[in-house]
Every structure is written in C-alpha cells, then in structure tokens.
Design brief:
This is Acyl-coenzyme A oxidase. By secondary structure, the chain is of the alpha+beta class. The protein contains 23 helices and eleven strands. It has three domains: 88 residues, Acyl-CoA dehydrogenase/oxidase, N-terminal domain (Butyryl-Coa Dehydrogenase, subunit A, domain 1, Orthogonal Bundle); 137 residues, Beta Barrel (Butyryl-CoA Dehydrogenase, subunit A, domain 2), CATH 2.40.110.10; 313 residues, Butyryl-CoA Dehydrogenase, subunit A, domain 3 (Up-down Bundle), CATH 1.20.140. The two termini are 48 Å apart. The relative contact order is 0.11. The structure holds ligand LVS2NKGU and flavin-adenine dinucleotide.
Length: 674
Amino acid sequence: MSDNKGVRRVNEDLARERANCSFDVREITFLLDGGENNTITRKKIEDFTLTDELLSDKVPDECLSPKEKYENAVRKSCLFGKLVKDKLLEFGGLETFGPNSFVLRRIADAFFKEISPLLLHLGMFVPTILGQCTAEQQSEWLPRALSMQVIGTYAQTELGHGTFIRGLETTATYDPETEEFVLHSPTLSSFKWWAGGLGKTVNHCIVVAQLHTKGQCHGTHPFIVQIRDLETHQPLPGIKVGEIGPKLGFNTADNGFLGFDKYRIPRMNMMMKNAQILKDGTYVKLDRHGKMTYGTMVFIRVMVVNEVAFNLAKAATIAVRYSAVRRQSEKKPGEPEPQILDYVTQQHKLFICIATAHALQLTSDWLWRTFSGVVTDIKHGKTDSLPEFHALSSCLKAISTSDAALLIEQCRHSCGGHGYMMSSNLPLIYSFVTATRTYEGDYTVLLLQTARFLIKAWEQAEAGKPLTPTVSYLTKYFKDGRVPWDSTSEGIVNAAYGVAAGKISACVKSIRNRVKTGLSYEDAWDLTTVQLVAAAEAHCRAVICDVYRSEAVRLTEKSSPNVRAVMRQLTTLYLHYWALERIGDLLRYSAVSEEDVVALQQKYEELLALIRPDAVGLVDAFDIRDEILNSTLGAYDGRVYERLMEEALKSPLNAEPVNRSFHMYLKPLMQGKL
Ligand SMILES: CCCCCCCCCC/C=C\CCCCCCC/C=C/C(=O)SCCNC(=O)CCNC(=O)[C@H](O)C(C)(C)COP(=O)(O)OP(=O)(O)OC[C@H]1O[C@@H](n2cnc3c(N)ncnc32)[C@H](O)[C@@H]1OP(=O)(O)O
Ligand SMILES: Cc1cc2nc3c(=O)[nH]c(=O)nc-3n(C[C@H](O)[C@H](O)[C@H](O)COP(=O)(O)OP(=O)(O)OC[C@H]3O[C@@H](n4cnc5c(N)ncnc54)[C@H](O)[C@@H]3O)c2cc1C
C-alpha cells in the first residue's frame, strides 16, 4: 500500500468516502473544539508533544507482565509530567490546567493505553487542594504538588464502604496536647481501598476520615497525609499500604489499600476551608450548606461527562472507519461484497454513537458553564444553586457513563471478531469507560439522589412555589393528562419532559399510597426506588435532548448550509432513536398514535440513509490523531489488515518459532511420557 515515494496510501474505500463527504470536515471540528482558535492551539500542542519517540512501544503494553506494565506507565508518566512542566506551561502557565486541560487529557491517551498512575494526582489531589484548603494551606501545598515533589491521590473509599460516605470508619482524633490528629483504622473494613496511584506511586494522599474532638464525632473531613518517605519512598511507620491486584481495567493505575495504626499528622494537615479545629480542639464549622466537603466529587462528575463523550468519539471513529474498509457477505447474489457500513443494521449500531458523542459533548460544555456559575456563586457565599446542581450533575454523570459504556460495547460488536483484539483498542476503551459508571458515585445511587430532588420539586410545584430552571417544566406538565404529540424536534423534547413529569407524578402517587397503608416514608420510598430511578433517567434524558437540540441550533447558526444540515440530521436522529427506545413511555404519557410511531420509525430509517454518505467525514471531524486512537482498526489511513498483522508479529510468543512448553509438556504428552 505504498506509492513509489514510500508514502503510505489511504485505503481506497476510505479515500472515496472522504471525497464524497458533503461538508468541510474542519468546520465541524471547529464547532466541537469551541472555535477555530481552540483547534489551532490543540493541534499545536499535539504536534509538539506527539512526535516523541517514547510513544512507540516495541512490545505492546498488553503483552507485558503487570509489573512491567506498571513500570512502563510510571516511566511514561514522568516523561509526560516533565513535558507538561517544561513545555506546555509555555502555553499560559497555570492556565494550561484550565482551558487546555481537556487537551492534556486527550494527549495523555497517546502516552498511556490504559491509565497513568499520576491521573489521580492531577485529576483529584490537586483539585481537592484547590477546593478544600484555605489560601494559606494552598500556598503551602499547591506549588509542591504542581512541581511533583509531593505526589498524591484521593483515598476516600474503604473496603466496607464506598457509596455511604457517612459510614466510613477511619478516625482522625484530635490531640490538643501535641496539636496533632491521630489517624486510625479500627477494623479490616476501615482500610482505604481503591485510590489510584496509592499502591506504589504516591507519597501523600487525601484521606477522608471521621473527625473526633473533645469526645464528639463531627462526621467525615479531608486530611492531607504523608504516607511514604520522600527520599526512600518506604511507607512511614504506622502506615500499611499496598496494591489491590488485577482488575477488569485500570491495570496501570496501581489502585491501592491503606491502613493506619495510630498515625499522627499535624493539625494544619486538616483541609480547613469548610471546617476548622482550633489549637484547643474546638470545632468550627464554616460550611453553611453542609455538603461542601463533597465538592471534589461534584467536580469530577462534571469532568467525567466530557471524558466519556471523548471516549465514545474514539470508539465511533474506530468502528466507522473500520466499517468503511471492511467488506463482508453479499446483498444480492453475485454482487461484490458491500462495505459493512452499507448494512442498515450497521448504520443503526453506529450513527447513534456519533450522535451521542455530540450530545454528550455539547451537554458537557453546557454543564461546565453551569458549574462555573455555581462556583462563582459559592465564592460570593451563595449556595442556593447547589441542590439543583448536585441533582443535575449526578444524573448526567450516571446517564452519560452508562450510555457511553453500552455504545462503546456496541462499537466493539460492530467490528466483529477484530473488535475483540486488544490492538483494536476497543476493549481498553470499554474497560475504562465501564468503570466510570461505578466510580465517583454508582449509577443507581446517583439517580436516586436526583430523584430526591425531583420529588421535592414536584411537591413545590403542587404548593404553587417557584421552581429552579431544570425542573421548571413540572409546572407546565403538572396537571394530569397526556402531553400532546408533535413529531418535530421541539415536539419530541416536550414529550420527553412530559414523560419525565408523568413518571415523577407516578412516583409521588406510589409513595403516598404506600404511606397511606401505614408504611414509614423511608419504607415507601424504598419500595418505589425502581420507579424513582426510571423517573430520574427520564428527567435526565429530557435534559440531554433539550440541551443537545438547542446547543446544536445555536452553534450552527453561522455554519454553512451543509454543516447545518448534517448536524440537524444527527440531532433529529438522536431524538427519534430515544423516542423509539422509550415508545412504551410515550404511549403511556403522550398522545402519540400508532400511525405516529410508524412515521417515527420511517423517519429514523430515512435519517440513517441521509447520514450514511457523511459518516466517515463525521468521525474524521472528531479529529482524533492516530497516536491517541491507538487502534489497528481505526487509523486514518485504513490499513486495517496490515496493522493487525504488524501488531500480531510483535507478540512475544512470535519471537521464537518453538516455545519451550513444547519440549516440556506437549512432546511428552504426544509421546505418552508425561
Ligand atoms: C500524567 C497524567 C495525565 C494527566 C491528565 C491531565 C488532565 C487532568 C484532568 C483529569 C480530570 C478528570 C479525569 C477523571 C478521572 C478521575 C478518576 C477518578 C477515579 C475515582 C475516584 C473515586 O471514585 S473517589 C470516591 C467517590 N465516591 C463517591 O462518589 C461516593 C458516592 N456517595 C455520595 O456521594 C454520598 O454518600 C451520597 C450522595 C450518596 C449520600 O451522601 P449523604 O451524606 O449520606 O447524604 P444524604 O443523607 O443521602 O443526603 C443529604 C443531603 O445532601 C445532599 N447532597 C449529597 N451530596 C451532595 C453534594 N455533592 N452536593 C450537594 N448536596 C449534596 C442530598 O441531596 C441531600 O439533600 P436533601 O435536601 O436532604 O435531599
Ligand atoms: C476503577 C475504580 C477506581 C476508583 N478509584 C477510587 C479512588 O481513586 N478513590 C476512592 O476513594 N475511591 C475510588 N473508587 C471507589 C468508588 O468510588 C466506589 O467503588 C464507588 O463509589 C461505589 O461504591 P461501592 O464500591 O461501595 O459500591 P456499593 O455501594 O457497595 O454498591 C454495590 C451495589 O449496591 C447498590 N447500592 C448501594 N447503596 C445503595 C442505595 N443506597 N440504594 C440502592 N442501591 C444501593 C449499588 O447500586 C450497587 O449496585 C474507584 C472505583 C473503581 C471501580
């Protein structure tokens, strides 16, 4: 596949797809990057970071032993860290961690096929210092953390408790005599478990523990704790620390365990922005809202929506390009084998992935802007927007991670057997994203948090009180009765809100009926939780549909007609897909008729056909470089079979023609001598 100048040619099918694309790919790239200037900066950063030879591994990571994998990940993390420190700061000092942090995150994928052991340092340790420390504490810890002298993680979860933070058992008891906290793990179940980088990498961590002073427990609070010697890296006396062992994914993250045996830390190592312990042990609460110490989790939930949108874009890019290259079966006897992308079922599997990647990215951008507003409010002492934002970020984290994981797995299915190869990168993308459904708040648990807020909002609507923006629709749909059906995009979004309102109303009725039978409110709630999760899902789906539709319209106001058309097709596809997926709900809560359902299906299939010629252009517009995609099936040039063979030949088993196990076991077995 090289021309006579040695330049590798692009697969002919892919080249033809690109030639037939109806729009200028760069225009959509600019939209997704938030403007042409952002694209230029991103590309500049990618250009000078992704040329390094450290990117090319002679032996694929997945062929290494767990220890070698970890060591390779540390090596690359340090080189990546140095690169960030030395070069990327030129792009605006600390600002690099602001506007360009998403770019850093993208580039990191070229360095690590799995996870960097330093991810938690930059992703949670540093943000927690920013969010939970006083200015004085920040000036002590931040420079050391950013220069990587102090390397940290976030150790909250314990063997016995992850979800129920109030149930954590690690204690931090204040001793006024020495002005120290004594950290202790009273039981096996109180051992910290899971923190990324804790096993072998970090020398500090943020430990969430029950604060005791003057004989009273004041609940969980965060503390900065040094756990290893800075010179020798040996665990300090009183610390028991190690790695938790192999997992479905995250295998280079050295997730760890940690226990304390009456381990002492200075008073000022308590993160004191939201609560303080005075020298004499007096507890001073500064957090009027009460849940400000959960701030890092809220921040990460916001980040995760973007994270999974990007990973879904990677999977869609791989699967769509592969589907344009792969030919299989025949549609009519004797005809040439079609590209598998020409099967309508394949389009059904894949185009929703492209649309969902857009939907989640636009929703994530909107969520980020909303979050910035909440942070500004908090800086001015206003916390009124927190309950709504907690409900919103919880459900968006739950639904985005769940949708992305399911669709990434669908991308793998759509690549047949080759999708099962580690070298396709789909298994690693999946194993990474499926964890996001659990960490930082399990799916069900977070949807139930949103449901709590929705039920309260319903009660407020009943009482004629004003509602906050994301639930203001409840006033409109408050009266019983079916939502009128209208098959326009706006109509489908309204119907989605109508379904959510109908489900919330049904939950309220169920809870009240159960309470009337003599059950406590908690028991009635518990018996209704299946419906409550479904109601929160419906609410979240309506929000995503609404934000995606309106943001896509807003963003494309000045776009060329062709870009506007294809973006409109994608949003309409997303809305029709979910209307059809939730047709039972629409039949129950809206006035949709059987003929309307037939029309919805027909329109959906028409959209698949309309999007088909632009599918490769749409994934090219994600503009994800080959080094970041890391996939034999998804590279830009489409040299799928050559790359599969090249990677197979790198397998250590192919380094010698005969493996020693032949002489040790097979031959004796064959000769009856075993
Ligand atoms: C070189 C390296 C490469 C570099 C790359 C560079 C780029 C860096 C950037 C990367 C950024 C991101 C990457 C992401 C990846 C990060 C990896 C993360 C790994 C995982 C980490 C973790 O999992 S940490 C542990 C997380 N744990 C959880 O999430 C636990 C979940 N549980 C809870 O949150 C709570 O226990 C729960 C909310 C379920 C209940 O809390 P509880 O105190 O019991 O409260 P309730 O009694 O139920 O409710 C009381 C009221 O409080 C309200 N409320 C609860 N939570 C909040 C909140 N957070 N905010 C506001 N309000 C809250 C609740 O609504 C109740 O209110 P009501 O009025 O009484 O109804
Ligand atoms: C890859 C990975 C990385 C992680 N990294 C970190 C880290 O760096 N630092 C850290 O502190 N933690 C980390 N965690 C831990 C993570 O935050 C927890 O695993 C997560 O919050 C879920 O808690 P759990 O494990 O206790 O699950 P559980 O709460 O035990 O959940 C088990 C099941 O019970 C259900 N359940 C629990 N409570 C309720 C309820 N109230 N109502 C209904 N159903 C319920 C859940 O829905 C789930 O189905 C990580 C986890 C993973 C998988």
